[in-house]
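## tool: complex_structure
## caller: assistant
## args:
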Amino acid sequence: MPDTWSQYSKKVMDHFKNPRNVGEIENPDGVGHVGNPVCGDIMELYIKVKDGIIVDAKFKTFGCGAAIATSSMVTEIVKGKSIKEALRISNKTVAEALDGLPAIKMHCSVLAEEALKSAIENYLNKSSKKSSRQSR
Amino acid sequence: MRRIYLDHAATTPVRPEVVNAMLPYFADSFGNPSSLYSYGQEARGAVAEARIKVAELIGARSEEIIFTSGGTEADNFALKGIAYASEHKGNHIITTSIEHHAVLETCKFLEKRGLKMTYLPVDKYGLVDPDDVKKAITDKTILISVMHANNEVGTIEPVEEIGRVAREAGIYFHSDAVQTTGHIPVSVDGVRVDLLSISGHKLYGPKGVGALYVRKGTRLVPLMHGGEHENRRRAGTENVPGIVGLGKAAELAGQEMGKEKVRLAYLRDKLIKGLEKKIDHIRLNGHPTKRLPNNVNISVDFVEGESMILNLDLEGICASTGSACSSASLEPSHVLLALGLSPEQAHGSLRFTLGRENSEEDVERVLDVLPGIVAKLRAMSPLFKTRK
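## result:
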């Protein structure tokens, strides 16, 4: 690789070149949609939850190299985590796992955190509706 | 891996002939052109010769060429120089919404200091309507500044007609010709321009040197104060090697432009047609025919520019994008938005600008590589899914 993109760490480039968990989950337990086309990043994050544990996560992202890498990384980190643990994953966790991001790209890690939180929120809303239906 | 450079609108490699012409003026003929002895005379002679070569390229007289540190200084000098010199006459400048930042930011600076600006819109191809220029003129208008060709989308503006409008109204006309000088014919009398900006490194000359053409009799206040260099219009010891390099580059461009622009236009059209054939959901940005012979600018739907650039770079191909993700501001290209593109389309733009070293093989390589990159990125794009 030419070193012109030296602003990105090796890990960012690795996740950009070979993104993990690309795609959608059929019948997901939670979906998060964040970002908007004006700022140039849109992320969709899907999670599958079993007994309070996130057993699978996938993503689709429109965005720059850092946006793709943070999406890929957050899906890797979150797999196997409990909902409680997953809620503690911050943008810093994602950025650090990628060996850092250039300052102007930190917002991509924020977007990854928001995508995860939004997917979990969606899951929690669904499950609370389900349980209230069951109790009726 | 062989690298393919397709970003000649950003900068060009210095031609070996230009490097050779410059070399004696670093250590051997190093004199200060203002000095009276032989070293000074050698340097002074070289600067004078370069001035003639640059003047010849644009059909000017050599005393109408002021060497600067580049295109940005030339633009700043033209706008501020006229604004300060014409304070008693008026305070209104007409320009366009697609100018280079060197013009736009200078306008914003002047606006903060009380000048009035009109930023003219462009049509979907990026063309300025000369009638709009005419309508925008007030009795306070002191300057019209319209670029010769746009650096991002390559659209060539109707500067001859705008020059006529300016001349009839008795208003100074400046044109940023950084992208056209040395690439397509530029004639200061044909365009009826009073001020014209030139950059060295866009025509295979060195960085750090440029020129402002100033028509004889045009009053402008200097930006740089100091010694009596450049006929008292631009103080500072001349960048002799740089100026010599610009002169040589201008000379060579003048000799070769006729053939080279035809060759580049052929490669440009091959690239455009090939991309349109191989990738669906793309559009050409800029004018289909009134465009620089070396410029290809496309928007690829559903994918973002920086991720395409990054993938192209991994394949050794150097191109650029108008996506916000490539800039610190996070705003997509003001030019693409002014053409009416949606933010997504602006984010998905790619610019290839061809040059002397490029061959048909390079174009074919892009056509081989880009479809796969787009397909890979679209497969992970949430925008693509929703349209399927």
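## assistant note: Chain A has a mean pLDDT of 91. The beta strands of chain A are 30-36, 41-50, 53-62. Handing back to user.
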